[in-house]
Amino acid sequence: MSQSQIMPGFKPALGYTLVYLSLVVLIPLSTLVFNSFQLSWEDYVAIITHKRIIASFQVSFGSALIAAAVASFFGLVIAWVLVRYSFTGQKLSDALIDLPFALPTAVAGIVLATIFQPGGFLGNLLLEGFGIQVAFKPLGIVVALIFISIPFVVRTIEPVLLEFDTSMEEAAASMGASRLQIFTKIIFPNIFPALLTGFALSFARGVGEYGSVIFIAGNLPYVSEIVPLLIVTKLEQYDMEGATAIALTMLVISFAMLLVINLLQHWVRKRSGQ
Amino acid sequence: MSIVLSNISKKFGQFSALDHIDLEIPEGELVALLGPSGCGKTTLLRIIAGLERPDDGKVLLSGEDKTDHDVRKRGIGFVFQHYALFRHMTVFDNVAFGLRVKPTKTRPSEAIIRKNVHDLLNLVQLDWLHDRFPDQLSGGQRQRIALARALAVEPKVLLLDEPFGALDASVRKELRLWLRHLHNELNVTTIFVTHDQEEAMEVASQIVVLNHGKIEQKGTPTQIYDEPKNDFVSQFIGHTNVFHLENDGDTWLKGSSIVLDNTDGITAHVRPHHIGVEKLDENASSPISLKDWQHLGATIRLELTNDEFKGTAKVIYAEMPSDQFKQSRLKKGDKVALFIRQAHWFNLEKPHVPEAATNF
């Protein structure tokens, strides 16, 4: 950084950023890594490869992926409706989107568990009508995760849709493109990077989500037990090493997956000359 | 393809953008829709394109009523003010878009698409940029790509919305001539919107002057300039001195020795180059003196002040060829005599001055 900068204060700003990042993110996370060094590799592998743990990883990452995909689709539709149409109650709907952000996740979990349980309003309907039980099954986890991740998708796509140059659509129409072609060839490629960001945020949130899930999941070992719950269980049993090992594994997998999504995003942007 | 607009009206809320417009454009013309901002010219262009529906009236293309036809089915090419290039596609894919979205039955093979696109890119002299993205191009290049893209579907009418508005002056000048030559080559009926009268004069074969949603005048650039129908057109096209004769300060015009072709009106518009200026002795009794002058290239603009009068004739602008200016040895402060060779007279209740009129 020997070149002179237009904006002054590069060094203090960088210093501040690094201190802040260290205190809040890096030091806690590295403590996790260092703590896990107390374990031998064999012990670590033994903990991680336990069937119950592996099952919980499958449940956590699987349901987070499905939930992120579903939330991306519905979030896109919601953002589209909020941006592209005007209707009464639009501002109210827009405000409602953020509610899952604000609501304590446990409250959300209890509410979802209440209505989706077999005796509950929606749970009864789905069970009687389609034979689908949501609560206390992995499906319940997915429902809870969709609930909490929709705002991430809506709020990342919304600004991109708002900024979208509608004359591009008119240009495509003037060349004879159908509405479907305009969406698939013009609009979607332009919002795809934002959609990926929304997906990544939903996924990250879903993997780490605890409060809203444990009430609706049923927490059956091997079936509907999520990783964060196992960590809490280990901690309650004063099994610090076990908890650390699971947490570290989760950290590594999450980081790897986010990295992949970011690379994908980079590739998409580059391919489209942005 | 000929275009006939009959009785077109369009309102946006309370605002009347277009007010009973009737216009005929014969095939092969290069027409400018000219007017100040907010005059409805872009709305009219969008109605011809089918991007906007008129509240009232009909749009006939080649004699067929296309009022209810979508933009997709009108066979037009539209170039947007800010180009609207697809930023996620290369230049090549942008130009190929119109051909690739055709239904399978009428879609040309990929080899033909490739050839057509390269031909078009050669036509706009930018084939070497075919694998770039729009963000990597300059404004002038984007404009030409937007034009190539619009031409790819072989439109029968080419519509351009402020095609040179976002370009810098030198590129604009170059592209104006280029568009005119391109039109001569392709002979596609072309309509473009502009607020710049010089641009309209330079490029178009026909000019339609619009103001407040109405057509003020339609004609060739020569007709519009030499025979303006009303004071709006006269003021909007080119520079002009406006003298209101109901104003006491301006009565000297009528009573002076200045020769005017006729005086049947209360407002006289005099083009600067229709005013002759002659240097007088220092002792002469003329109230008019040369306050300042500016070199505009081939012509010199003279700023003349009239100390005795308080009306609109207090400051008069005249122009003369720079050679003549040199010979006349005029300098600041010299007393001068004026000769008005030609004036346009208008009878007006209330003169309205256009927003974007360039009065020097």
Automatic annotation (TrEMBL), chain A:
ABC transmembrane type-1 domain mapped to chain residues: 57-261
Cross-referenced NCBIfam families: 3a0106s02, permease_CysT
Subunit note: The complex is composed of two ATP-binding proteins (CysA), two transmembrane proteins (CysT and CysW) and a solute-binding protein (CysP).
Entry protein name: Sulfate transport system permease protein CysT
Keywords: Membrane, Sulfate transport, Transmembrane, Transmembrane helix, Transport
The UniProt record lists the keyword Cell cycle: no
CDD domains named in the record: TM_PBP2
Function: Part of the ABC transporter complex (TC 3.A.1.6.1) involved in sulfate/thiosulfate import. Part of the ABC transporter complex CysAWTP (TC 3.A.1.6.1) involved in sulfate/thiosulfate import. Probably responsible for the translocation of the substrate across the membrane.
Membrane topology recorded in Swiss-Prot or TrEMBL: Multi-pass membrane protein
GO cellular component: plasma membrane
InterPro entries linked to this entry: CysT_permease, MetI-like, MetI-like_sf, Sulph_transpt2
Family, per entry: Belongs to the binding-protein-dependent transport system permease family. CysTW subfamily.
PANTHER family, alphabetized: SULFATE TRANSPORT SYSTEM PERMEASE PROTEIN, SULFATE TRANSPORT SYSTEM PERMEASE PROTEIN CYST
Ranges that cross the membrane: 13-34, 55-81, 101-127, 139-162, 182-203, 210-231, 243-264
Compartments (UniProt record): Cell membrane
Listed GO MF terms: ABC-type sulfate transporter activity
TrEMBL record, chain B:
EC nos: 3.6.3.25
Lineage top rank: taxon: Bacteria
Cellular component annotations (GO), alphabetically ordered: ATP-binding cassette (ABC) transporter complex
Keyword annotations: ATP-binding, Hydrolase, Nucleotide-binding, Sulfate transport, Translocase, Transport
Domain ABC transporter positions: 3-237
SMART domains in the record: AAA (SM00382)
InterPro entries the record matches: AAA+_ATPase, ABC_SmlMolc_Importer, ABC_transporter-like_ATP-bd, ABC_transporter-like_CS, P-loop_NTPase, Sulph_transpt1
PANTHER family the UniProt entry points to: SPERMIDINE/PUTRESCINE IMPORT ATP-BINDING PROTEIN POTA, SPERMIDINE_PUTRESCINE IMPORT ATP-BINDING PROTEIN POTA
Annotated protein name in UniProt: Sulfate/thiosulfate import ATP-binding protein CysA
Organism: Methyloglobulus morosus KoM1
